[in-house]
Amino acid sequence: MALACEIRAIPAMKIISTVALATPERAAISTAVPGVELLDRACRSPEEISEFVSGGCDVLLSFRMPDDIVRRARGLKWVQLLSAGADHALGGPLKGASIPITTASGVHATPIGEYTIASMLAYARRFHVTIRAQERREWVRRAVISSLDVIRGKTLGIVGYGSIGRETARLAEAFGMRVLALKRNPSERRETGWTPRGVGDPEGRIPARWYGPEQCCELLGESDYVSVTLPLTAATRGFIGVKEIAAMKSGAYLVNIGRGAVVDEAALAAALAAGKIGGAGLDVFEREPLPADSPLWDFEHAILTPHVSGDFRGYMGLACELFAENLRRFQSDQPLLNRVDPVHGY
After folding, report:
1. Is residue 8 flagged as an active site residue?
2. Residue 212 confidence class, pLDDT cut points 50, 70, 90
3. In a domain, 2, yes or no
4. C-alpha 290 chain-centroid distance
5. Whether the Cβ atoms of residue 306 and residue 46 lie closer than 8 Å to each other
6. Which domain does 101 fall in, by range?
7. How far is Cα 192 from Cα 31, in angstroms, rounded to an integer?
8. What pLDDT, in 10s, does the model give residues 216-246?
9. Is 307 a catalytic residue?
10. Which of 166, 259, 265, 321 is catalytic?
């Protein structure tokens, strides 16, 4: 007598995106792993995310998540963040969890690299002065002409040589700048994360010199421009403090696009007020939105933007390109790109 065999259907991988996806983005995900169950919705609060994932999922694609994500999203096996930083996830919702986390590092390299160069050019060409004069209908040619400069031949110190720092270096080299790089382990010069083709400095060939964290003041003392691209971790909080700002060249210009708490904001404001440094381009702040009573608003030589340096119209398309590659790796048990090391925090 033949034995009846019970055939059980293998459930499809369930992916939830807390960002509404366009048709090409959905297609990239579905093509990477055919047969997936893909649900997407624009969630604007932790409460909306909690409700959306309450049925459980295998993979979550999101910028942020509620504190109860592990309990809510039953069966969660992997979180793909749409941000380059993971401090918000490691510090709360996934603190102590064994669920793999990957970031969107590399997606921001081009827009933030361009933003950094634009901020430096704006400072060198005194756009921060002339735009304000334009609003007052003032012709300030005599006032600015003696202070106009070029960035060619200047030294750019990059504090944090990840995907953003590497693309900034590539663009700076094209402008004829000398590049210095600071990295947690300067002996590891190759890029290990995901970066779009043709972007950045994958081999680490551009920097004229490499520095470790303990050599930060030395790098700052040699730099006409400084780009801070560090993630926020226990080791980087307040990394650019009173001592480091004091080590900067007189007239140097600092750009911070990493996290606000990496730079001691009070020390920076004091240096700007005293004329110790030439100026600052800031896209991130210790408190966001930047409080109305912050002295940073009042400095003519500070160029402030509301945490937008990494945004651009093709963001989700590029992020889904990375996500699709990670999905293929996840399905075939290969190492995920941009996996966060919980010890180092990035």
Report:
1. no
2. very high
3. no
4. 18
5. no
6. 14-107+312-331
7. 25
8. 999 999 999 999 999 999 999 999 999 999 9
9. yes
10. 259
